[in-house]
Write a structure and sequence with these properties.
Keywords: Signal
Distance between the termini: 87 Å
Largest sheet: 6 strands, antiparallel
Radius of gyration: 29 Å
Number of helices: 7
Structural class: alpha+beta
Order of helices and strands: HHHHHHEEEHEEE
Strand content: 15-25%
Strand order of the largest sheet: 3-2-1-4-5-6
Helix content: 25-40%
Length: 260
């Protein structure tokens, strides 16, 4: 009887141990992939600068140049910069050597990077596309913010010179109290004939400010974000989100590299 109870107790203990192990958090392949993914642009900068490992640990020893080179290569989109044998192209290799050789760093505060944001917008009830370029601006001792430096979109494409079919103001409007101005609204694209072309110059930022300030433009969605860096002398590179299934090489990665 005692032997039976002992065996039964052992069996129950084993079952409880298995159940407890099932409830314990075990690192999964998904978790490893998630750690390997470059999830934010700040994380990209930290890995680029060799101040943080792929799993979020701080790097205190940065003198191992071979380690940093290997780490930098993981920030490239392999599908664009590596051949079928896993060999990186010569420009990527040259770039990595220059970054490590001179210990170039990326910093949020620098004015050497810009954000490109593509949006879907609604202007006067019509849907359209808007591309914004932004950069960081120092507004206090240690305070920064993003500001719009340029804008592109069909809503800004008004004619810059007098053209046939464009609206204009009659030479006898002064005789009728300029009542012709009442018919100059509507959805016209060529309005330059109304302006003194000696001083008129279409300014997209001013147009955007007027549209936003008067509630005439709504940003419906942000469709794509890219970052363009000019922080490494002789190079410019673009970083954007790359999605791949079941790979570590995902997230914010270098997708374009130019040497000049």
């Amino acid at each position: 009887m005692c032997r039976f109870i002992t065996i039964l107790s052992f069996a129950l203990a084993c079952r409880l141990l298995v159940s407890a192990q099932a409830l314990m958090p075990v690192p999964s392949a998904y978790e490893s992939l998630l750690k390997g993914r470059v999830k934010q642009i700040d994380e990209f900068m930290a890995r680029f600068n060799a101040t943080e490992t792929w799993d979020g640990q701080k790097i205190t020893e940065r003198n191992d140049t071979s380690y940093r080179k290997k780490y930098l290569f993981t920030l490239f989109d392999y599908s664009r910069f590596r051949d079928v044998n896993g060999v990186f192209d010569s420009m990527a290799v040259s770039f990595v050597n220059d970054v490590v050789g001179h210990d170039y760093q990326l910093r949020y505060e620098d004015s050497t990077w810009t954000a490109e944001v593509q949006c879907s917008v609604r202007v006067g009830g019509r849907l359209g596309k808007l591309k914004l370029y932004l950069h960081t601006l120092k507004v206090g001792k240690s305070e920064y913010r993003w500001v719009i430096s340029n804008a592109y979109g069909d809503m800004f494409e008004v004619a810059a010179t007098d053209a046939a079919g464009g609206v204009s103001i009659s030479p006898v409007e002064h005789e009728v109290g300029f009542v012709g101005l009442l018919s100059m609204g509507g959805r016209r694209r060529n309005v330059s004939g109304l302006m003194d072309r000696r001083v008129y110059s279409p300014d997209r930022l001013s147009m955007l400010a007027v549209l936003l300030g008067n509630g005439l433009l709504d940003i419906v969605s942000v469709d794509c974000v890219r970052f363009h860096f000019h922080s490494v002398p002789g190079y410019s590179f673009t970083v954007e989100v790359v999605e791949k299934r079941g790979e570590y090489n995902t997230g914010w990665l270098i997708t374009q590299l130019e040497k000049f």
